[in-house]
């Protein structure tokens, strides 16, 4: 009987083989600005840790390579990811000379490839397990808790990205606050205006065509161009409208970034509201009329609840989009994690780039998982499908 290999497992095995056998696991630099020295996995780790990590990777690759049960695949992928997270800190401690505060140790391409490969295996196993929405959120919380534990334990303190953080801790949290404010604030504004506008567009065909066409045009404008376009009118408002500058409306800063993100957010919210309401079964409306409901009652008690999962899908799109786009706000003084990304690019400091990029990616990933679960939980067919 022929042994059947898993296609994804083959891909993961190839990636892992290249990451272990060819790509460097960590990079050592004598100081922040000199070129790095790539280190293999075995050279990066103490004598006990290198073979241990190789054995864990080999077992996980074998499990992924064959058609094994999803629970076993999940356990293998999570164990490997945990080992990678713990041992990259050990590599930093191992490669940094004693009492040296200038040396920098960074994860290299081999580490990132291994992280990608086994995150892919974990995602595949979770998909095969068909976890309920609440269990997916629980997995996210446990993963966040593990990362928090590793950070608080101090095992990553000698990694260069943590050294960049320690030098900018106050600035980091200030920019994090700005980033979240831009992403969530523009989303809230878009929901408050976009849902009523979507309801109106659903009711009035001519208005629907005009509004959606205008919002489609806005969506096609590149983000940097839109930020630039808004500088002049907001600058004029700040100079000529009493009190505008005092409340934060200026040509540069958070105001144009907020307005641009708000404009980008409107199309998904309005369009999904229209689509959601249009998808409400005619029979549901007829039944509501039959029991004497007014148009307002039908909207809030029948149409909106049935359309809500589709509307929430638009909100999910907007939030993930805004978390990413808020990074560019740093170019016009809007703050956010983009400050570290662009500072790092200007200084050729990759670890500073990662200090801004990694939390942005993690925020977007967490937002997508939570809102995907919320969409599924809000579906009127969820309980029946689960049963």
What key attributes describe this structure?
387 residues, mainly alpha, three-stranded antiparallel sheet, 16 helices, 3 strands, 75% helix
What's the total count of β strands?
Answer: 3
User: Structural class from helices and strands?
Assistant: mainly alpha
Helices and strands, in order, run as HEEHHHEHHHHHHHHHHHH
For the sheet with most strands, the description reads:
3 strands, antiparallel
Shape type: flat
Q: Which regions are unreliable across 5 or more consecutive residues at pLDDT < 50?
A: 383-387
Q: Work out the helix count.
A: 16
Arithmetic mean of pLDDT: 87
Quote the distance from N terminus to C terminus: 37 Å
Rg of Cα set: 25 Å
Q: What's the arrangement of strands in the largest beta sheet?
A: 2-1-3
Helical fraction equals: over 70%
Proportion of strand residues:
under 5%
Structural features, described:
The chain is mainly alpha-helical and 387 residues long. Helix content is 75%, strand content 3%. A 3-stranded antiparallel β-sheet has the order 2-1-3. β1 and β2 form a beta hairpin. The longest helix is centred in the middle third of the chain and has 35 residues. The C terminus is likely disordered.
Task: Summarize the structure in short.
The longest helix is centred in the middle third of the chain and has 35 residues, at 169-203. This protein is mainly alpha-helical and 387 residues long.
């Amino acid at each position: 009987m022929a042994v059947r290999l898993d296609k994804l497992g083959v891909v993961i095995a190839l990636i892992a083989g290249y990451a272990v056998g060819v790509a460097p696991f960590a990079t050592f630099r004598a100081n922040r600005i000199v070129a790095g020295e790539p280190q293999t996995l075995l050279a990066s780790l103490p004598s006990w840790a290198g073979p241990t990590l190789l054995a864990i990777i080999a077992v996980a690759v074998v499990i992924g390579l064959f058609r094994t049960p999803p629970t076993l695949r999940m356990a293998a992928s999570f164990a490997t990811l945990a080992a990678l997270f713990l041992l990259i800190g050990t590599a930093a401690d191992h490669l940094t000379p004693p009492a040296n505060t200038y040396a920098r140790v960074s994860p290299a391409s081999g580490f990132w490839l291994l992280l990608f490969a086994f995150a892919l295996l974990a995602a595949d196993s979770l998909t095969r397990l068909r976890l309920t929405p609440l269990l997916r959120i629980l997995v996210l919380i446990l993963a966040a808790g593990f990362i928090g534990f590793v950070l608080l334990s101090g095992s990553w303190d000698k990694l260069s990205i943590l050294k960049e953080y320690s030098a900018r801790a106050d600035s980091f949290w200030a920019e994090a606050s700005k980033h979240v404010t831009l992403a969530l604030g523009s989303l809230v504004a878009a929901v408050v205006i976009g849902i009523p506008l979507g309801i109106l567009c659903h009711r009035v065909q001519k208005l629907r065509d005009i509004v959606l066409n205008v919002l489609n045009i806005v969506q096609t404008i590149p983000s940097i161009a839109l930020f630039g376009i808004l500088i002049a009118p907001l600058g004029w408002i700040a100079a000529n409208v009493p009190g505008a500058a005092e409340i934060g409306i200026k040509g540069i800063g958070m105001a144009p970034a907020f307005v641009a993100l708000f404009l980008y957010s409107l199309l998904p919210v309005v369009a999904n509201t229209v689509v959601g309401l249009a998808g409400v079964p005619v029979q549901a409306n007829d039944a509501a009329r039959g029991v004497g409901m007014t148009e307002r009652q039908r909207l809030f008690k029948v149409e909106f609840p049935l359309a809500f999962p589709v509307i929430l899908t638009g909100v999910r799109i907007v939030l993930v989009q805004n978390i990413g786009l808020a990074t560019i706000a740093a170019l016009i003084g809007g703050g956010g994690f983009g400050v570290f990304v662009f500072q790092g690019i200007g200084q050729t400091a990759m670890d500073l780039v990662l200090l801004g990029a990694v939390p942005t990616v993690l925020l977007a990933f967490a937002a997508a998982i939570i809102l995907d679960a919320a969409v599924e939980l809000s579906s009127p067919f969820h309980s029946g499908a689960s049963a």
